[in-house]
Design goal:
By secondary structure, the chain is an alpha/beta fold. It is built from eleven helices and 16 strands. Helix 2 runs parallel beside helix 3 and helix 8 packs parallel to helix 9.
Length: about 375
């Protein structure tokens, strides 16, 4: 449950809007850092989860690296205090100007997703008379067992270089004189709650690393991406998720070479629970089969339920004392039937004007908002 003090502030907001709790954010981030530091691991914040400036500043000042997937994110990382030598840049479709910018900035690593891209990066680095640090993103063909839209490490996905391409890759690597091959990168998917797929990733990464070693390649770092899932039913708990078990698993199962660094790119697990989408009830509409709570926020503000059938906890913060005795479908105002935050949700008896908090919306919420139906979102608010 949120504190009374927080609730009273949230009740005053113009809606719809995102409300971030930086106290919760710092506590989560600190916990993750402490657990990672036990093993000397390095953590990058996956900026795609939430690019709010205050959130970026928080991570850069605490010593996190940044994980970027566009030139825009690299620029935002630099503008918000991340040092170039802590920035990783992945993505299957980097444009020439994004590649040039990353080379010029001398970032930690360009994570290369295809042979075609490697060739271009080598050429661009040559044209700029630079030697560029590259990590090869490999597609490990490991099933993350999560929603198919957020699975990335299967051969059918567009991400990374697959094993069947290795003989051609080894030949190409020989010719890439402007590239310093510094790392291997993996990312199997997102919202992975069961740790088993990460164990499978470790075993597969060990095997893949050996193949490169047999060809004379030694890497200074491995990067195992992000993907650690959270419990969407437990938004107020800073120990959600279990960072300790997660990092320990990599310590136990991933074989690091002497002096080799291990990097992570966590997004959701760091920021999901620091943000709520705050919305007001426009109408409570009676239906024959179900009653609808219609909010002034919809899939335009938070698309996750519509796109991935994702669950977010919904709380009527105007009536925290009342029992959750009524059943509603909680929906938005958008002209799409998929614009639904939850079906058969039990809430206190709800009225027009009540304020709802859609919880754990700090990750992939505001950054995925759209202007569909010509809507606009109020500026987000931050609680120190
Ligand atoms: N590294 C790479 C290369 C990634 O593609 C991602 C996420 C991450 C790290 C961070 O993953 P995380 O720790 O946040 O799971 N919009 C979807 C999630 C998309 C994830 C995209 N890649 C959602 O709302 O569930």
């Amino acid at each position: 449950m949120m504190t009374e003090e927080r609730i009273s502030k949230l009740l005053e907001l113009e809606t719809p809007c995102y409300a971030y709790d930086l106290v919760h954010l710092r506590a989560t981030a600190k916990l993750a850092l402490n657990e990672a530091e036990k093993y000397g691991f390095h953590v990058h914040y996956a900026m795609k989860a939430n690019g709010h400036e205050r959130i970026l500043e928080t991570f850069s000042s605490m010593g996190f690296g940044a994980d970027c997937v566009s030139g825009g994110e690299v620029r935002a990382a630099l503008a918000n205090g991340f040092k170039p030598e802590k920035i990783a840049f992945a993505g299957v479709g980097k444009t020439d100007s994004e590649i040039d910018f990353a080379i010029e900035q001398k970032i930690f690593s360009l994570n290369v997703e295809s042979l075609e891209e490697l060739q271009v990066i080598n050429e661009r680095a040559g044209a700029l008379s630079e030697k560029v640090r590259v990590a090869l993103r490999l597609n490990p063909d490991v099933n993350a067992k999560t929603h198919h839209y957020i699975t990335t490490g299967l051969e059918e996905n567009k991400f990374g270089i697959s094993e069947w391409q290795f003989s051609e890759l080894f030949e190409l690597m020989e010719q890439c004189h402007n590239v310093d091959f510094t790392g291997l990168h993996f990312h199997i998917g997102s919202q992975i709650k069961d740790l088993e797929p990460f164990k499978n990733l470790c075993n597969r990464a060990n095997e893949l690393q050996r193949m490169f070693e047999n060809h004379g390649y030694r890497f200074t770092h491995l990067n195992v991406g992000g993907g650690l899932g959270i419990d969407y039913d437990d938004p107020d708990n800073v120990e959600n998720p279990d960072f300790s078990g997660y990092f320990k698993l990599f310590h136990d199962f991933l074989e690091l070479k002497p002096g080799q660094e291990l990097h992570f790119e966590l997004g959701r697990s760091l920021v999901a629970n620091c943000g709520d989408l705050i919305a007001k009830v426009v109408f409570v509409k009676k239906g024959r089969k179900t009653n609808f709570v219609i909010l002034d926020a919809g899939m335009t503000e938070l698309i996750r339920p519509a796109l991935y059938q994702a669950y977010h906890r919904i709380e009527n913060i105007s009536r925290v004392e009342s029992p959750a005795s009524e059943r509603y479908d909680v929906v938005g105002p958008i002209c799409e039937s998929s614009d639904c935050f939850g079906k058969a949700v039990y809430l206190p008896e709800t009225q027009r004007g009540d304020v709802m908090a859609i919880r754990s919306a700090g990750a992939y919420g505001e950054c995925m908002a759209s202007g569909y139906n010509m809507r606009s979102l109020h500026a987000s608010v931050v609680n120190e």
